Hints:
By secondary structure, the protein is of the alpha/beta class. The protein has a domain at 42-233 and 243-339: Alpha/Beta hydrolase fold, catalytic domain (Rossmann fold, 3-Layer(aba) Sandwich). It contains 8 helices and 15 strands. The protein is globular and about 75 Å long. Involved in inositol deacylation of GPI-anchored proteins which plays important roles in the quality control and ER-associated degradation of GPI-anchored proteins. Its EC number is 3.1.-.-.
Amino acid sequence: MLKNFIVVLITFAFGCFLYGARYIFLEVEENACRMTYMFGEPQFLKLKFKENKEFPHYGLYYYYEGPVQQNIKYLTLRGAPVLFVPGNAGSFKQVRSLASVALQKALDNERNIQLNYFAIDFKEQLSGFYGGYLEDQKMFLKLCIQVVSNIYEKNKSVIIIGHSMGGKVAQAVLEQRGDFTKINSIIFISSPLDIPVINLDYEIQKFYVNNEKFLSINRERYLAHNETNACVDLYQNVSYFRSESSLMENILMISIGGGNRDLMVQESLTISKYSDIHAMTSSIPKVWLSCDHLSSVWCLQLVKVINRFIFAVATVDSRNDVFYLDEKGLRVQAAINYFVKPLNRRKVIELYFNNNYESVWDEQSKIVYGKLFKNGLRHYYNQLLTIHKYKDYKKFFMEVTGLDENNWLFACLETFHEGNSLGW
């Protein structure tokens, strides 16, 4: 009898395990990310510098589109530098989605701002499984930051984008004292920051412990807020006394989690108490979806938001040279605007329409209906919804596809009706 009970118990437990595995790995939302396509033929120009001899198996590349160049000296670089750090088994070529969108955005930019994207080649090392790679990657990243900054006539600070374990390496490079002024901001995409995904060897444990000790002494810790995906101390006053500690505190850190589709790095591991802002892709304005671990570097919705933020924190001097804003408070405001919630929300206003207003008015009394504009809209279109017939329904749901970002949608309620004039 006892043996039968044990067999049944083991069978039940195994069945629960299979159900849980199926739920975690199969029952996830469909990938709604749009693919990012290149606007030109991707080109990767390898940068040569003498320090590279210390790490001959690594490389640093500059991304551009157009005719093949043999030397970076023949390229006119006046933009602000962005350095991409790949993660576990990641390729430097993953930068092409972010870089190509930035190149296209620079062509349609009233502020005349450009970004220069660089990427590190770690030879697709499995840094998430073997910690012996991490120290070498950290030291090579330090060299690359110096090389990229020194390319320009006036040494510029760099924004680092780290994907997966590349984000942890970017966080750990802060241990290299003296380079804080060359790092403006760090964006972590699906990176296990404070705790590793798996701890297979002593080197991984040592890498995380050493970084934790350093940050706990030199970096302010933040607590997550219950009502937002930002942090409590976002509006703290950053000291402008340029001590070593304040210089590192001036570096803006933004961590981004992929959500339930990311089966490699769970969302809880992407949160760091040392990040200024944490956001999940499902709650980022104009993204609103979950990204799996690999698609987070090419998901068009997320790629556009990241580039918009970087463009927002860049400025142009009198010589049309592009730099990043040094004041952290302004960068924090921009980060909140793009990754948390828009700061320029429109207030409720009163609008008055009359018969002379050139627009089309249409009234719809159905509960469910659709509207298709094959050739777009060439005039104002107003849709009236008759809701007094359906008093039991309290909410209204609207799904919009194919809307150009330059267009606007407004919703309002009728407050009074007097003659031919409507108040809204």
